[in-house]
Amino acid sequence: MQDYFFVDDSGSKEWETPYSHSYVERLPARNDQNLNFWRRNYFVLAGIYVSSDIIKNLNSDINQIKLKYFKTKHVEIKSVWLRNPDKRKKYYTDPYSVTDDDLLRFTEEWYSLFQKYPLLSLQAFVLDKMYFGRQRFRCTPLQKLTQVLFDRVELNPKKHCEIIFDQMDREIKTEKHLARQILKISRKEINLGSFYTKYTHRQVRFESSKHSNLLQLADTVAYNVYRQFVCFGDQWHNRKIHRLPTYPFFEKIENNFYCNVSSKKVAGYGIVVVPSPEKIPWRKASKKPDQ
């Protein structure tokens, strides 16, 4: 049985967030005034592990949901387009003659896929840029997080997977180095501190998300992890809490994250934050007895 890991990104691949000890010691408030600061501070790579025995049925279910609401399966689903009113109008309501209520119902069915397929295993990698200081001159956020992703895939039971990245269309057309850098890290031609001399994953390739239902699901994961940290990233480092406040749509996917089998701990397993404090207590929510 072959496993595939579909990966997309969210947030900026650049180092816009200024580095300063003052930010680390006195974090800017998470309010509308500082929203752009927090949006620029995080970069996320995230994805879904899909096994070959469910990929056909999952792909078929996605197409059926698209056909139900858009009358075509050739529509790209991106979280930021669904959330932003202007983009929602441009990409969905106008071209496909659907209403906002239709999109709400579509969104519910889209997220229901994560419950229907509990074996969909999610893994996300979050770069907290404000801590990186001089390392900014050594690598880009994309390079740093790609290195972490490959290293952590080695610790996942599905480490023999084939990894498929969103091809980052705009960048590939203008600056081919982004895909090439990912491949060089995978092949160990660039080493930013890896623990491994060789990786186990089978290969790395790139696909356009507009042609891949699975990359569109990966976009859903990446965007909602990104929004979770923009809204509540400071709580991730709070050792006094055992249950995080959650961004509403993140809540719909949280039980699919890869975790420690015995402790159900997600931090450091399904969600890896770079850099990470020594101890983070977040675990999956326990299911109710009647579930």
Distance between the termini: 30 Å
Largest sheet: 6 strands, mixed
Report strand %. Answer: 5-15%
Helix-strand string: EHHEHHHHEHEHHEHHE
Low-confidence region ranges: 287-291
Overall shape: globular
Examine the secondary-structure arrangement and name the CATH architecture: 2-Layer Sandwich
Count up the domains: 1
- Specify the helix fraction band: 40-55%
The CATH topology annotation reads as Nucleotidyltransferase, domain 5
The oligomeric state is: single chain
**Spatial order of the strands forming the largest sheet:** 5-4-1-2-3-6
Determine and state the CATH class.
Alpha Beta
Structure description:
By secondary structure, the chain is an alpha/beta fold. The protein has one domain: Nucleotidyltransferase, domain 5 (2-Layer Sandwich). 42% of the residues lie in helices and 14% in strands. The chain contains 11 helices and 6 strands. A 6-stranded mixed sheet has the order 5-4-1-2-3-6, sandwiched between helices. Helix 7 (141-153) runs parallel beside helix 9 (177-186). The longest helix has 24 residues, at 213-236. Residues 287-291 have low confidence and may be disordered.
